[in-house]
Write a structure and sequence with these properties.
Layout: E1 4-6, H1 12-20, E2 28-36, E3 39-46, E4 58-68, E5 71-78, H2 90-95, H3 102-118, E6 128-131, E7 136-137, E8 140-141, E9 144-149, E10 154-157, E11 160-163, E12 169-172
C-alpha cells in the first residue's frame, strides 16, 4: 500500500539490484527488467512451487522508485493492481499470460500508449505535418508546418522555428 525504504540503499542502481537480484530468494527469479524514468518494470518467474504459486508462473512487476533523505525506496505492485503507469515494454505482455481483472484493461492502456507513441516515429527533418486545431504562433492559427528538428521537436513556419510537442501533430502529410 505504501512505500518501502531501506537505509542501506543509497542509489537507484542499488535499489534496482535489490528488487531484481538474489534477495528474491530461491523461489523466484527476474526474467526481464527495464527502467523508464523512475519506474522499474520486471517479469518475475517462480522457479519452485510457493503456496498458491506454481513453478513457471510469471507476473509483471511495476516498481515506482524514489529517494527521500538519501535513502532509495519503492512502491511495488503487479499488473493485477491495474497500475496507472503505461510505459511497460510490449514484449513483457507477450511473456506473461493475461491474469484477467484489472490487468486486462491495463494491458489495453499499455498497447494504446505504445500505438500512440509509434504513430510519429517516422518524423524526419523536412517532413510536412498537419497540426491539430487550436495551434497558434503569435496569435495566428497554424494548420501545416515543416519539421526543422526531431530532438527537440521543432517546426518551421515561414521564417519562424518553434518548439512543438507531438500531441499538437494531427498527421504526417
Amino acid at each position: 500500500m505504501g512505500w518501502s525504504f531501506d537505509s542501506s540503499l543509497h542509489s537507484k542502481a542499488e535499489l534496482i539490484a535489490y528488487l531484481t537480484g538474489p534477495n528474491l530468494g530461491t523461489a523466484m527469479k527476474t526474467v526481464a527488467k527495464c527502467v523508464k524514468g523512475n519506474v522499474l518494470w520486471t517479469v518475475h518467474e517462480y522457479v519452485e512451487d510457493s503456496g498458491s504459486y506454481k513453478a513457471g508462473q510469471r507476473w509483471i512487476g511495476c516498481y515506482l522508485m524514489g529517494a527521500d533523505k538519501g535513502w532509495w525506496g519503492s512502491k511495488d505492485m503487479d499488473e493485477s493492481c491495474g497500475p496507472c503507469e503505461v510505459s511497460c515494454p510490449l514484449s513483457y505482455l507477450a511473456m506473461v499470460p493475461d491474469p484477467g481483472g484489472y490487468a486486462t484493461a491495463w494491458r489495453e492502456k499499455v498497447r494504446a500508449h505504445h500505438a500512440k507513441a509509434s504513430k510519429f516515429n517516422g518524423l524526419k527533418v523536412g517532413t510536412k505535418v498537419k497540426l491539430r486545431a487550436g495551434v497558434t504562433v503569435a496569435g495566428d492559427p497554424l494548420t501545416e508546418a515543416t519539421i526543422a528538428s526531431v530532438r527537440p521537436l521543432r517546426i518551421t513556419v515561414g521564417y519562424l522555428t518553434v518548439r512543438l510537442s507531438k500531441k499538437h501533430i494531427d498527421a504526417i502529410l
